[in-house]
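Quick start: read one record
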Amino acid sequence: MSMSNEMVKKNKKIVLLFTVVTIFIAVFSTIYEFFSFGVYSPYMVFAFLIPLIFGIVPFGSCIALKRKLPARSSVEMYSGAVMLLTAGCIVRGVLDVYGTTNRKLILYPIIFVVMVIVSFYLKYRDENKKMTE
């Protein structure tokens, strides 16, 4: 299936967004570690991998394989889930550096999974709508 130029631009825009977020998180965690007097958290150090693995890889593969993106609502829900999990790792890293914890941190991965499930539901719902029309 061939993609139009507009679809290619949308895919590239999403990949660019995740690339910028990945670079920002990597730089942020490096600077934060520098000023934390040798105390670091693996959650903070590896937080950049979340937008890299869950953002750049899937959307970049859509470009490479010339696949069309799912409906906008599905893409936005999925992107929001990735950003939420990234923020959760940053928060967990900050709390680890300060030597504290919070029971509410367990909500980040749970909400991430729920949002990903909802994004897949939206994807298949929209595909079924198109098939019945």
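The chain has one domain: 5-132.
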